[in-house]
Write a structure and sequence with these properties.
Helix content: 25-40%
Mean pLDDT: 94
CATH superfamily of the largest domain: Mur-like, catalytic domain
Number of helices: 16
Radius of gyration: 24 Å
CATH class of the largest domain: Alpha Beta
Strand content: 15-25%
CATH architecture of the largest domain: 3-Layer(aba) Sandwich
Low-confidence stretches: none
Number of domains: 3
Strand order of the largest sheet: 9-8-7-10-6-11-12-13-14-15-16
CATH topology of the largest domain: UDP-N-acetylmuramoyl-L-alanine:D-glutamate ligase
Structural class: alpha/beta
Distance between the termini: 63 Å
Shape: globular
Largest sheet: 11 strands, mixed
Length: 486
């Protein structure tokens, strides 16, 4: 693509070298650069891309986009100096891949909890309605019905635009995407045009990156600040930050709530572990999801579908058939008569939501046994909070390993145990080996009880010392249940 076309929406400070030049590829990783590519030197959280400019040139980069010009400027390379390469890279990638969000309708979902459920169920809903759709999520990326593995909630801007470009090229009419606070803050979604945005909720998470809750909140808010006047912004009135998110947006604001008057409102009429009967804007509908937190998720889905032009009754009809997302309140039944629930809950608030949902259905007719841990090399402040909430809302708790990464599992467990109060300690066990922890919970469970295995959900690995070992909570439970029936 012509360099001037790529730079059309970029504020360029200086261009040194040939401007009339064609670029064959774009990269932010110098190791991936090929002859004829454009390399953007981004000051990342782990390393500064400027130090890899020589490597990129050695690999054949024809254009270097940077904030600081290097001392040596070869004649055969064009240098483009900009004020902020992190801001520029998304806009360059969008142009290179043919402005994909001008060719499909993109909806972004941000917040602490619920992003995966909302984005995935919107993808499944619009697919069921006969549209070809794309999905960018924590669990998996999809183009139509073809799955592509994912490593980050929101990919880097080049990978993201390549994916969206492929979606548009293959005829996708809609795309639904999780927008993490990291991605918003790092401008990974810069240059994209959103048809709409959804805010779920805001609770403590990622303090290791954002440092303060205010920084975390403002990163989420920045997404809505950049929505256009032709977009919609759907926000959760039941969250105290719901209206903060949209106070500066140009988009058309719509609200959803279970407790207040809102554009999209719902209440629970009946609930079991198999689903709920809801009243949504005056119409009754049975859904397969469970818990008040899922009512909020479904309201966001309903609202987005209506704002995208679907008929409300058609939306509710399809919504009644949507299955739960992998690893989100996924229910398994033991031959011994107890229930196991696998959920991705890995923040204090998410854990509270899931445990409250279990209480709402169980109605004190059995005990709740919770298995949970916390990730290594992440926000340490939430570890004692998670253990405290698990002990407060469970009859028994087994603290265990999650993804320890480069920390010692026992150290993480100790951090969690520090949050357990004296009157809770007799109900709390520590079993560092996760498989043994799940097995211990199953040994403690009686007929009518519920085991919650929290933290990993859809993940089929454990990250230990930089190596991902195969591990799936559902597989472990299935093996235990199989042995019980033999």
């Amino acid at each position: 693509m012509d360099l001037q076309t790529l730079l059309r929406n970029i504020e360029v400070k200086k261009t040194l070298g040939a401007a009339d030049i064609n670029v064959t590829g774009i990269n932010i990783d110098s190791r991936l650069v090929k002859s004829g590519d454009l390399f953007v030197a981004v000051r990342g959280t782990q390393a500064d891309g400027h130090q890899f400019i020589p490597n990129a040139m050695e690999s054949g980069a024809k254009v270097i986009v940077c904030e600081t010009l290097p001392d040596v400027l070869p004649d055969n390379v064009t240098f483009v100096q900009v004020g902020n390469t992190e801001d520029a890279v998304g806009k360059i990638a969008t142009a290179f891949y043919g402005n994909p969000t001008e060719r499909l309708k993109l909806v972004g979902v941000t917040g602490t909890n619920g992003k995966t459920t909302i984005a995935t169920l919107l993808y499944e809903m619009f697919t069921a309605m006969g549209f070809k759709c794309g999905l960018c999520s924590t669990v998996c990326n999809y183009i139509g019905e073809t799955a592509y593995p994912t490593e980050h909630t929101t990919p880097d801007p080049i990978t993201l635009n390549r994916l969206l470009g492929q979606m548009a090229d293959e005829g996708c009419q809609y795309a639904f995407m999780e927008c993490s606070s990291h991605a918003i803050h790092q401008k990974r979604i810069g240059g994209l045009r959103f048809a709409g945005g959804i805010f779920t909720n805001l609770t403590r998470d990622h303090m290791d990156y954002h440092k303060t809750f205010e920084n975390y909140r403002d990163a989420k808010k920045a997404f809505f600040d950049t929505l256009g006047a032709d977009a919609f912004a759907i926000t959760n009135l039941d969250d105290k930050n719901g209206m903060v998110m949209v106070q500066n947006t140009k988009a058309q604001v719509k609200t959803y709530s279970q407790m207040r008057v809102a554009d999209f409102h719902a209440k629970i009429l009946e609930m079991s572990f198999e689903g709920m009967l809801l009243d949504v804007n005056g119409t009754e509908v049975h859904v397969r999801q469970v818990g008040k937190f899922n009512v909020s998720n479904l309201l966001a889905i309903y609202g987005a579908a209506v704002m995208l032009g679907r008929e409300p009754l058609d939306v509710l009809t399809v919504m009644s058939n949507l299955k739960s997302v992998s690893g989100r309140f996924e229910t398994l039944h033991s031959p011994k008569g107890y229930t196991a629930i696998v959920d991705y809950a890995h923040t204090p608030d998410a854990l509270v939501n899931v445990l409250n949902a279990i209480h709402e259905v169980l109605c004190r007719k059995g005990e709740i046994i919770t298995v949970c841990g916390a990730g290594g090399n992440r926000d340490k402040g939430k570890r004692p909070q998670m253990a405290y909430e698990a002990a407060r809302l469970s009859d028994k708790v087994v603290i265990t390993s999650d993804n320890p990464r480069f920390e010692e599992p026992q150290d993480i467990v100790n951090d969690m145990l520090a949050g357990v109060k004296d009157d809770q300690k007799e109900r709390v066990l520590a079993v560092v080996d996760r498989k043994e922890a799940i097995r211990t919970a199953c040994m403690l469970a009686k007929k009518g009880d519920v085991i919650l295995v929290a933290g990993k959900g859809h993940e089929n690995y454990q990250d230990v010392k930089g190596v991902k070992h195969h591990f799936d909570d559902k597989e472990v439970l299935a093996d235990i249940f199989k042995s019980q029936s033999e």
